[in-house]
Amino acid sequence: MTTYAALLRGINVGGRRKVPMAELRELLASLGWTDVRTYLQSGNAVFTTPPEDTGPPGPRLERALAEHFGFEVPCLLRTASELREVADACPFPADRLDPAKLLVLFVEETPDPAHFAGIDPEAYAPDEFRHLGRAVYCWFPAGMGRSKLPDALAAVRPRLTMTGRNWRTVTKLIELTA
């Protein structure tokens, strides 16, 4: 049995691509997964796969979402230990920062270490970012609302599948997967 956090990308934003959380929980349970929970309306789900599920659940979940809701939903999955590793690797002093202003961009696959090298950090100051493995940590001291950094990170080619969660959500998902 493995417990996963599923981070659904680009749903329930501006009234588009609606995925009601109760329906998502039912869909996950229909796949034979247990301990299904959701957090907030932004596409955070936690579930446990049975021992006989040997393949990765991501492709199965994406197919089920497309069939049920009629549109594709990229899903980034992390195990409980992978979430803990993300938290432990945070290069910013998370315990001293506003958790709403600290963001983790979860990346589907580990990009080349030089992937973000073309972004001039000084151009986005005081906002900061650090790329470590399959995570990009961002600190927005004045908040993310007007920052140009997220657009710059998303514009780097080749394009990466990634989705962001603030630190409060990251720590809650760790709690839910424990």
Q: Your description of this structure?
A:
With 178 residues, the chain is α+β, with helices and mostly antiparallel strands. It is built from 5 helices and 8 strands. The strands form 2 sheets. Strands 2-3-1-4 form a 4-stranded antiparallel β-sheet, sandwiched between helices. The longest helix has 13 residues, at 57-69. The protein is globular and about 50 Å long. The model has no long low-confidence stretch (mean pLDDT 94).
Q: Key features?
A:
28% helix; single chain; 25% strand; 178 residues; alpha+beta; 4-stranded antiparallel β-sheet
Please provide the ordered H/E string of secondary-structure elements.
EHEEHEHEEEHEH
Uncertain segments are: none
Percent range for helical residues? Answer: 25-40%
How many E strands?
8
Mean pLDDT over the full residue set: 94
Give the CA-based shape.
Answer: globular
Instruction: Summarize the main sheet.
Output: 4 strands, antiparallel
Q: For the CA atoms, what is the radius of gyration?
A: 16 Å
Terminal Cα span: 13 Å
Number of helices: 5
Q: Which band does the percent of strand residues land in?
A: 25-35%
Major beta sheet, strand line-up: 2-3-1-4
